[in-house]
Amino acid sequence: MIFVVPAAAEGERLDQWLAGQGLPLSRSQIKRRIDEGEIEVNGRPGRPSQKLHAGDEVRFDARPPRPVDVAAEDIPLEVLHEDPHLVVLNKPPGLVVHPAAGHASGTLVNALLHHVRDLSGVGGELRPGIVHRLDKDTSGVLVVAKDDATHAALSARFKAKDLLRLYHAVVAPAPPGDAGTISTLYGRHPRHRKRFTSRVQEGRPAVTHYRVLERFPAGAALVECRLETGRTHQIRVHLSEKGWPVLGDPVYGHKPRDPWLRELGEALGRQALHASVLAFRHPLSGDDLRFETGLPPDLAALVAALRAGPPGARARPPR
To answer: Are strands 204-215 and 221-227 parallel, antiparallel or unpaired?
Structure first.
């Protein structure tokens, strides 16, 4: 594949300019391909920051995807949809999405490498493309790309907010109002670098829309959250910093005053958060897709217990 740089692109960076040429790659993937020697400028290896000149010849010789150094593992997966371009899953709680320090195996990617037989490679590697992540202990709908074109297109939809993401959460205490929007700046916590916060002077915008679906006698509530942006831990942070933390959240949660609610949260063993709906337009077929999953057994049991109220106590009607 050969491109000739026009006069209008004089002085642009190589990676930036290539990202605008309709390649099925994100800018980070293009940068990786440049670093690995797949892209030349006038017959010489390119550099991502290299400034282009009118008439430069840019050659992209894509190599076949190389195997990734991650083992395929026969881990059960609940597949909601699969086609030649993407897979949609219902992720169970407790499953880490991507291999990392402390989780070299037993992850969603390990499972996908076993399950998906027609990967064409993402970012130059024969691996599934994680478009968005769910925390280890958050369950629910997740979409994964099988190839560069689908990964780039889905990533663009997430960036443009051109999709629907709904989550269900059990919070304690309950929000005072029935619905609202939390709109803040967002960034890393200044002291706890593995945590995030909306209490920053500078940061990226974060917007969460919420509505109360059900109030329970003990003061907890089932809340639906619609993400307008998708920052790391966004729902957990937004609800916690408003004073309505997700029940059972070990990082951003606060122990409820009610001992019975505390006991329920501890017994759950994870944050009571579930990605219930994901809807988007298929990037290649153009079909409108919508995937919806009910609460997993542990959260369904939690909601049933909250509806019943504390054992031996006469439940008061919800306020």
So the answer is: antiparallel
**Residue 315: per-residue pLDDT:** 47
Intrachain domains 66-160 and 164-284+301-308 with the same fold: yes
User: Which tens digit of pLDDT belongs to each residue from 240-259?
Assistant: 999 999 999 999 998 898 99
CATH superfamily, domain at 164-284+301-308: Pseudouridine synthase (3.30.2350.10)
Phi-psi region of 22 (alpha: psi -120 to 50; beta: other; left: phi over 0): left
Least Cα distance to 89 among 235, 293, 280 occurs for: 293
Can you read off the two tokens belonging to residue 184? Answer: 């803040």
- Residue 133: partners with Cβ closer than 8 Å, 6 or more residues away: 97, 98, 142, 232
CATH 3.10.290.10 fits 2-60, yes or no: yes
Q: How far apart are CA 194 and CA 305, in angstroms?
A: 33
pLDDT reported for residue 223: 98
Report residue 303 as tokens.
């909601």
What was the pLDDT predicted at 194? 84
By the 8 A CB rule, do 195 and 251 touch? Answer: yes
CATH of span 66-160 = 3.30.2350.10
CA 273, CA 261: separation in Å to the nearest integer? 16
The answer to pTM > 0.85 is no
**pLDDT for 206-218, tens place per residue?**
999 999 999 998 8
Domain range list for the chain: 2-60, 66-160, 164-284+301-308
Q: Which residue in the list 135, 147, 148, 249 is annotated as catalytic?
A: 135
CA separation, residue 294 to residues 15, 29, 90, 107, 276 (Å): 43, 35, 10, 23, 7
Residue located via tokens 């300019």: 17
Is 135 in the active site?
yes
- Contacts of 286 by beta carbon, 8 Å cutoff, 6+ apart: none
Ranges of residues in the chain whose predicted pLDDT is under 70: 64-68, 101-102, 123-126, 313-319
Q: Is the CB of residue 140 less than 8 Å from the CB of residue 270?
A: no
Residue 304, φ and ψ in degrees, nearest 5: -60, -40
